[in-house]
Design goal:
This protein is of the alpha/beta class. The chain contains eight helices and five strands; from the N terminus they run H-E-E-E-H-H-H-E-H-E-H-H-H.
């Protein structure tokens, strides 16, 4: 088991931190997020937002899909519209095509977060540019829980970087190589189909495809 390779002080610190976080969880009903995750299961997630400024912009849609082994479980997906408090700018509509009237009947952010947490469970999270999506989710979660999502996070572009780095000749690894991590470049290089972009569920499915392919290439 993995714990056999982790020094005891590190395992102890992780266990104490876990218990501390559970004790201070704003809604104890969500303590299942700290459970042991199901084996070979992940959740790929993507959010569409009113902009790219975490401090002032808001989530307007969430797409998530479960991954089991090498399968994307499209029947086990989550697709939510979220009603923003400050409306939707014309500039952001050009990107995600979600107008003010489209999200007017969306869920309040608190309800969307509850549905998202139940969907994720304790599964690790997968995504492209995941740090931004998680930051937006955490912005919504902290007033509710006093903390963010505890699940392990896996950045697909990081997996792709490692894959391309391993292909380089030894002399090219001496410095930090410049590797094109753009989404379209990555998908084309991996020979994967591209769905219509800037749709939360489509983006989550594409990130899941890349994740599965990169795991296979690593093995």
């Amino acid at each position: 088991m993995m714990s056999e390779h982790v020094p005891f002080p590190v395992r102890l610190w992780r266990a104490l931190k876990r218990e501390w976080l559970i004790y201070h969880l704003g809604h104890p009903e969500f303590r299942f997020m700290f459970d042991k995750p199901p084996e070979d299961e992940w959740v790929s997630i993507d959010c569409e937002t009113t902009g790219l400024n975490v401090s002032k912009d808001e989530i307007i849609s969430i797409g998530a899909v479960r991954i089991k082994g090498n399968r994307i479980m499209t029947s086990e997906r989550l697709e939510l519209l979220v009603r923003p408090e400050r409306g939707v700018s014309a500039e952001s509509v050009k990107i995600h095509r979600l107008r003010e009237q489209d999200v007017a009947q969306g869920l309040p952010i608190d309800e969307a977060m509850k549905q998202l947490m139940r969907f994720i469970g304790s599964r690790p999270l997968v995504g492209y540019f995941l740090e931004f999506d998680v930051a937006m989710v955490h912005k919504a979660l902290f007033p509710m829980l006093g903390q963010g999502l505890p699940q392990h996070k896996i950045e697909v572009s990081g997996m792709y970087y490692d894959y391309k780095y391993r292909q380089l000749p030894a002399h090219a690894r001496q410095s930090t190589p410049q590797i094109d991590l753009r989404f379209d470049t990555m998908m084309a290089d991996l020979g994967l189909p591209v769905r219509e972009a800037h749709d939360a569920l489509n983006d989550a499915v594409m990130a899941a495809l890349a994740f599965i392919k990169l795991r296979q290439l690593k093995d």
